Amino acid sequence: MADFPLPRPAADWWRTAAIYQVYVRSFADGDGDGTGDLAGVRARLPYLADLGVDALWFTPWYLSPLADGGYDVADYRTIDPAFGTLAEAEKLIAEARELGIRTLVDIVPNHVSDRHAWFRAALAAGPGSPERELFHFRPGRGEHGELPPGDWPSQFNGAGTWTRVPDGEWYLHLFTPQQPDLNWDHPAVRREHEEVLRFWFERGVAGVRIDSAALLAKDPALPDLAGRSPEPWPGETHPYIDRDELHAVYRSWRAIADEYGAIFVGEVWLPDSERFARYLRPDELHTAFNFSFLSCPWDAGRLRTSITETLAEHAPVGAPATWVLCNHDVTRTVTRYGRADTGFDFAAKAFGTPTDLELGTRRARAAALLTLALPGAVYVYQGEELGLPEADVPIGRIQDPMHFRSGGTDPGRDGCRVPLPWTAEPWNEPWLPQPADWPAYAADRQDGDPDSMLTLYRTALGLRRAAAGFGGGALEWLNAPPGVLAFTRPDGLLCVANLSGGPVALPAHTSLLLGSSALDDTGLLPQDTAVWLRT
Length: 535
Description:
The structure is a single chain. The chain is of the alpha/beta class. The chain has three domains: about 15-110 and about 185-220 and about 230-465, Glycosidases (TIM Barrel, Alpha-Beta Barrel), CATH 3.20.20.80; about 115-170, Alpha-Beta Complex (Oligo-1,6-glucosidase, domain 2), CATH 3.90.400; about 475-535, Golgi alpha-mannosidase II (Immunoglobulin-like, Sandwich), CATH 2.60.40.1180. The chain contains 15 helices and 18 strands. It has helices spanning about 25, 40-45, 45-50, 85-100, 115-125, 185-200, 245-260, 275-280, 290-295, 300-315, 335, 355-370, 400-405, 445, 455-465, and strands at about 20, 55-60, 60-65, 75-80, 100-105, 135-140, 160-165, 170, 205-210, 265, 285-290, 320-325, 375-380, 475, 485-490, 495-500, 510-515, 530-535. The strands form four sheets. An eight-stranded parallel β-sheet has the order 11-10-9-5-2-1-13-12. Strand 9 (about 205-210), helix 7 and strand 10 form a beta-alpha-beta unit. Helix 6 (about 185-200) packs parallel to helix 7 (about 245-260) and helix 12 runs parallel beside helix 15 (about 455-465).
């Protein structure tokens, strides 16, 4: 176990937490069937405690046919049998807590699986039934109702959002046809989600991540976009993104969370910073993901702007910022930073993009120290601490619906979801194949190596926890050469990241706490390197 102190119990632990994202299916296989499970997570809890994280965020572990990686939930009160049982989940929550690690679970309120009991009942009940009022069923257009009722594009590659059922009606799904949207104007929908929150809070869950948090409410008329952009409209009410009535939902949720001392983090993709901040008012969500920083390219000016604007938009509501380099939906950091275009955009994903993994790894190490030095909470996606690159999944093994709904042009998200390599020696064939060179990234091979990515993350997270100046408190930018980011934190802490084209001199300091790469004999800070200093 690490020598660094465990976090002190605090009501505001989430303001500076380091939270590790667990994609259960790909984290650790406990029973040898090739699929990650709760037994695998429980066995790796000492590893996670040694890593130095404060909480685990689990992507959906509920009963699901996996049409969209578990985000098509069939039953929120049942663990998918491929992962284990509810009793195992309760043990996992308790065992993690004993190690000082809290648990967050995912809630997907916009939609359910087409195999959810509600939707099966709606299909059986027929047009005009109360069961169908829980969803968005409509008659079709055209002479025989053969045309979709609307023109809203899917969140997956712009495909259609209406599917016709045998009795002739159509239902709305902003994602795949296997994910029918719920009608959030219906009181039963609101009541059910409040009960689900209580169900998990009563089992010791410390927080909830809310998927697609800005999409729940819809204009009851479901009006056409009529050629307008599907993106939010500045100054105007959008028919299904960021509608004002959403805030009443989250205020009711916040009241429940406050009863249990639990917290929320919202997945809120909005370009309008003022609209974004509304979700973080003191009686709504505690935090929201920062997608500006996640998608930002490896460019000092762009990163500084993103950091400054993020802190500014959170300040009026007193909410902490969150920082993340990667998650289960985006290209892994090592690969992204090794490409000519180092930003992230779903529309830009393509097969065969040239990548310099040595350069990407160097930048990813520097980015880790930059991110962990920023004020607020930080999220680490599983495998980032191993420096895993994006995997090239053979076309015949791809399972992500984004790939299929693009007509096969988009590689999808499976490349960042390949199961982790725990040992250099092969064990069982996982549900997605690991690349042949992944034994070099194995956790057992990196353990004890002072130069490994795993050691860098362990050391950085330990220092971040032990040094009060990291996490909370203000950030003050320092004058620095072009291409260099330099800022101070409380207690004499200083972070410098060199994104320029060559080595640069370090500012005055009394000691070097940690560097993403070794400094040369000149004492200059090499290109694509970050350091933590004490002044």
